Amino acid sequence: MTSFDSVKDLVLVAGATGGVGQLVVGKLLEKGVKVRVLTRNAAKAEEMFNQRVEIAVGDIRQPATLPAAMPDVTHIINCTGTTAFPSERWEFEQSPNLLEWGITFLNPKSSQAKAKNSPEKVDAQGVSNLVEAAPRNLKRFVFVSSCGILRKNQFPFSILNAFGVLDAKQKGEDSIINSGLPYTIIRPGRLIDGPYTSYDLNTLLKAKTGGKYGVVVSTGDTLSGDTSRIDVANACVECLLYPSSSRKIFEIVNQGQRLPVIDWETLFSLL
Ligand SMILES: NC(=O)c1ccc[n+]([C@@H]2O[C@H](COP(=O)([O-])OP(=O)(O)OC[C@H]3O[C@@H](n4cnc5c(N)ncnc54)[C@H](OP(=O)(O)O)[C@@H]3O)[C@@H](O)[C@H]2O)c1
Fold first, then answer.
1. Nearest CA to ligand 1 atom 45
2. Could you tell me the sign of the dihedral formed by the alpha carbons of 117, 239, 174, 146, in that order?
């Protein structure tokens, strides 16, 4: 087990204002780790994290905004994402009317092209931009991907991938793997628990999964099911402590009986 050097180590969390990202920040702060968040919305992050984190304003689609977030960063945890299906979060050039929404759903490829924050822009290009901007001596790049990357033609993942989210996540994974940086790629199932919208740091620090199911990890993309955002966030942080999770890609779902304490060291040793 390695521990954080609280003087030297600094974790950059991208997507920190999202469901998993908020919990990652809470968990890092609980462990006394220095955190910088990369956000498009500084006011939202300030309100959320009570001035307990450094804030860097940036957008992973815009490479020029990323270098300013990187000085002294030792680890990156990337929890960015958009919706799998067209929504306002895709940031269409013009808000579609009812007919255009219909056309959008009938023509997945052209809808991606018209959207400014589609999976292709965020999960593929954005992740690649973040990898390019990362310090070359980074200790770990953690990426929240998705179950189904290797089963895109099988139900239900064929439906999930109708607008290319799994294709885009796979491109993001490939950029990380090919970068030469030490990485951990975490593929959750359908996310449950949160997002927590109270923007109250104390709520985040106390967040506990209501689920009674245990944590199961595996490789080779065979698992399916629900995954607690809290367990994903814990996996993102705990993997930094264990060299056995470096250069590993694993799926994580909730199944079986939940033990009072999750033994991450043993889980990672199984990969
Ligand atoms: N939902 C599921 O069932 C499911 C299943 C498997 C995997 N996943 C993946 O799990 C991860 C976490 O999901 P979640 O639901 O907890 O996330 P979320 O609440 O959707 O949060 C997404 C985060 O990404 C940020 N973001 C979006 N576009 C960005 C951009 N262009 N530049 C910088 N930041 C950007 C958002 O920031 P703003 O606040 O600025 O918008 C937000 O902080 C995502 O990668 C998702 O794809 C989800």
1. 81
2. negative
At 38, list the tokens: 């990369």
Residue with the bigger pLDDT between 24 and 94: it is 24
At 110-138, the pLDDT tens digits run: 666 678 889 999 999 999 999 999 999 99
CA distance 247 to 92: 36
Q: Is residue 100, in this structure, part of any structural domain at all?
A: no
Going from the Cα of 123 to the center of ligand 1, the distance in angstroms, rounded, reads 9
* Containing structural domain, residue 248: 10-82+117-269
- Identify the CATH number of the domain in which residue 168 sits: 3.40.50.720
Indicate which residue's Cα is closest to atom 18 of ligand 1: 18
Q: Is 83 in the pocket of ligand 1 (CB under 6 A)?
A: no
Number of domains in the chain: 1
Residue 188: CB within 6 Å of ligand 1?
yes
How confident is the model at residue 206, as a pLDDT? 67
87 within domain boundaries: no
At 79-112, the pLDDT tens digits run 999 998 888 888 887 766 767 767 666 666 666 6
Does 228 fall in a domain? yes
CA separation for the pair 175, 60 (Å, rounded): 14
Ligand 1, atom 8, lies closest to the CA of 146
Question: Could you tell me the pTM of the whole model?
Answer: 0.94
DSSP 186: E
Out of 4-8, 185-189, 238-242, which region has the weakest mean confidence (pLDDT)?
4-8
Q: From the alpha carbon of 59, which atom of ligand 1 is closest? A: 32
190 domain-assigned: yes
Residue among 80, 122, 152 whose CB has most ligand 1 atoms within 8 A, to mutate: 80
CB 208 within 8 A of CB 243: no
